[in-house]
Design a protein that fits this description.
By secondary structure, the chain is of the alpha/beta class. It has two domains: 155 residues, 3-Layer(aba) Sandwich (Rossmann fold), CATH 3.40.50; 115 residues, N-(1-d-carboxylethyl)-l-norvaline Dehydrogenase, domain 2. It is 51% helix and 13% strand. The protein has an eight-stranded mixed β-sheet, with helices on both faces. Strand 4, helix 4 and strand 5 form a beta-alpha-beta unit. The relative contact order is 0.10.
Length: 287
């Protein structure tokens, strides 16, 4: 199966490059400018996306829709698309739990559309090897073909709807979850006055280079923490759906909430200052 028009919902830093990567194989790649920011317009123009105007027009003109949005908005966005009578193929490429992916799939198929589950690993597409789009479901191969020869590697995995989302959740549980855990360890050590002793133990004996890696990861996380709150909630739900405790990721939700004030900071504050931010929420009022 080939597609004549791909529509992206919505062209954020990631979504714009996911859409732009399909331009070599899909004749028209659209976005909708109504209600979007100037930054979104600039991203869409850099990727060569055509403006459909409104989301209604975007849905009506597209036979393939790709959803890349914050996790908390994914289900509502799919509901809006289904309400518009979309009959094409919908790819949810958001960081959601397998259970939520199956719920979103049901919304789309009950409305008359078709569904493929997706999960993105890596940053915005820049060059070959930076970003992978994992896909699962009956028409995953057709979606992957839209990215043949592009800088985005589209990989089909078995398991049906929910598999691609499960892989994304497992991967992010390790990467973003580990960043939160290490940040919490450093904050606790600072609070108890043993931070320098811990760092000396890591560097001299147990984990050389760990502090530098943890600091770099924390600084990279701070500008995105506002988005990662929802992702940690989805990871916690994924563990619970698997019969496992999700409490570690519920704690990560709170940790990333304490860094939300640094949204899109460029450059982000140094790691030492961010650890102070994690601890500041614990200070009694007036101190």
């Amino acid at each position: 199966m080939t597609f004549s028009t791909l529509g992206i919902l919505h062209p954020g830093a990631m979504g714009a490059t996911i859409a732009g990567s399909a331009r070599g194989m899909v004749p028209r790649v659209l976005w909708a400018s109504a209600g979007r920011s100037g930054a979104s317009r600039a991203r869409a123009e850099r990727q060569g996306l055509q403006d459909a105007g409104t989301v209604v027009d975007l849905v009506r003109q597209s036979d393939l829709l790709v959803s890349v949005c914050p996790p908390h908005a994914a289900e509502a966005l799919a509901t809006d698309v289904a309400a518009l009578g979309f009959q094409g193929l919908f790819v949810d490429a958001n960081a959601v739990s397998p259970g939520r992916a199956r719920t979103i799939g049901g919304i789309i198929t009950n409305g008359g559309g078709r569904f493929v589950d997706g999960g993105i690993i890596g940053g915005p597409v820049q060059r070959p090897g930076t970003t992978r789009l994992y896909l699962s479901g009956d028409e995953a191969e057709a979606v992957a073909a839209c990215y043949a020869g592009s800088n985005l590697e589209a990989l089909v995995i078995p398991g049906g709807i929910g598999a691609a989302s499960a892989l994304k959740m497992a991967y992010a549980a390790q990467t973003k979850g580990a960043t939160a855990l290490l940040a919490a360890i450093l904050a606790m050590a600072r609070r108890e006055g043993v931070e320098q002793a811990l760092l000396a133990e890591w560097e001299a004996h147990s984990y050389p280079g760990l502090h530098a890696r943890a600091s770099k990861s924390l600084e990279g996380a701070a500008p995105k923490a506002w988005r990662w709150v929802g992702e940690m909630e989805e990871i916690a739900a994924t563990f619970e759906q698997a019969g496992l405790p999700g409490g570690a990721y519920e704690a990560a939700v709170e940790l990333y909430r304490r860094l939300e004030q640094h949204a899109d900071a460029d450059p982000p504050p140094p790691a030492s200052s961010l650890i102070d931010d994690l601890l500041r929420a614990l200070q009694p009022a007036g101190t």
